[in-house]
Amino acid sequence: MSLTEVEISGQILLPGSDTPASGQVVFTPADAYVDLDGHITYPAVPLVAQLDEEGRFVQSFPHADHDSISPQGMTWQVQ
């Protein structure tokens, strides 16, 4: 069973200003996606999005849209 992907985009500004942040944003999934047999379909590895000169990023995320994949409603830690 393959996972579909969802694209997320955003902009990060420095606190209290309109100045774009620089660097990267790291998204770490709370769990691996597993199928009904316990096989990992997507490991719990961080995704790294680089910020551009305007502090913007675009990142694709796996999306479990099938009942045979768990967990449903994945949560991510953002750093």
What this model shows, in words?
- The protein is mostly beta strands and about 80 residues long.
- About 0% of the residues lie in helices and about 45% in strands.
- It contains no helices and eight strands.
- A three-stranded antiparallel β-sheet has the order 5-2-8, with no helix packed on it. A three-stranded antiparallel β-sheet has the order 4-3-7, with no helix packed on it.
- The mean pLDDT is about 85.
Relevant terms:
79 residues; mainly beta; three-stranded antiparallel sheet; elongated
How would a crystallographer describe the biggest sheet? 3 strands, antiparallel
The H/E string reads EEEEEEEE
Counting helices, strands and paired strands, the structural category is mainly beta
Q: Name the helicity range.
A: under 10%
Low-confidence regions: none
Shape: elongated
Major beta sheet, strand line-up: 5-2-8
Distance between the termini: 30 Å
> What is the alpha-carbon Rg in Å?
15 Å
Overall pLDDT metric: 86
Content of β-strand: over 45%
Strands, count: 8
How many helices? 0
Provide a compact summary of the structure:
With 79 residues, the protein is mainly β. The chain is built from no helices and eight strands. A hairpin with a 4-residue loop joins β3 and β4 (40-42).
What's the arrangement of secondary structure elements?
Blueprint: E1 4-11, E2 24-29, E3 33-35, E4 40-42, E5 47-50, E6 56-63, E7 69-70, E8 76-78
Antiparallel strand pairs: 1-6, 2-5, 2-8, 3-4, 3-7
